[in-house]
Amino acid sequence: MAAPSLAISLAKFTNWVMSYCEAFFNFVRIAQTERTIDREIRSLKLDPIVPADAIHQLELTAIEAKIQNVEQTIDKLNKLRRN
Fold first, then answer.
1. In angstroms, rounded to a whole number, what is the distance separating the alpha carbons of residues 76 and 21?
2. Does residue 1 register a pLDDT over 80?
3. pLDDT tens digits for 20-59?
4. How far apart are the first and last CA of the chain?
5. Percent of the chain scoring above 90 in pLDDT
6. How many whole angstroms separate alpha carbon 44 and alpha carbon 15?
7. Higher confidence at residue 1 or residue 61?
8. CA atoms lying within 13 Å on the CB side of residue 46
9. Would you state the pLDDT for residue 63?
10. DSSP line for 26-79
11. Do 22 and 79 touch, CB atoms closer than 8 A?
């Protein structure tokens, strides 16, 4: 009788670890993308042809995306913690 419950417990634990790893690596991937976008915005600031309003709009969009990504990550981790 102990073997099936042990197998189920190990499967649940493995699932939990994989879910946290997936959330972590998604967070890292998103952070790398955000850094790339920030670098591109900084390089656009150095270009005199690009209007300042366009750069400002890009910065606002990037900030909104960062906030949204953090909220999604928090929601995913809260769901994982509840399970």
1. 12
2. no
3. 888 888 888 888 988 898 899 999 888 889 898 988 998 9
4. 24
5. 13
6. 43
7. 61
8. 5
9. 92
10. HHHHHHHHHHHHHHHHHHHHH-TTS-HHHHHHHHHHHHHHHHHHHHHHHHHHHH
11. no
Tokens matching residue 8: 């189920």
Indicate the length of the chain as a whole number. 83
Burial of 26 (0-12, 13-18, 19+ CB in 10 A): middle
Q: Are 59 and 41 in contact (CB under 8 A)?
A: yes
| Number of DSSP helices (H) and strands (E) in the chain, helices first | 2, 0
- Residue 48 sits at φ, ψ, to 5 deg, of -70, -15
User: Coil, strand or helix: which one is 83?
Assistant: coil
Asked if 30 and 44 count as a contact pair (C-beta separation under 8 A), the reply is: no
Amino acid at 45: K
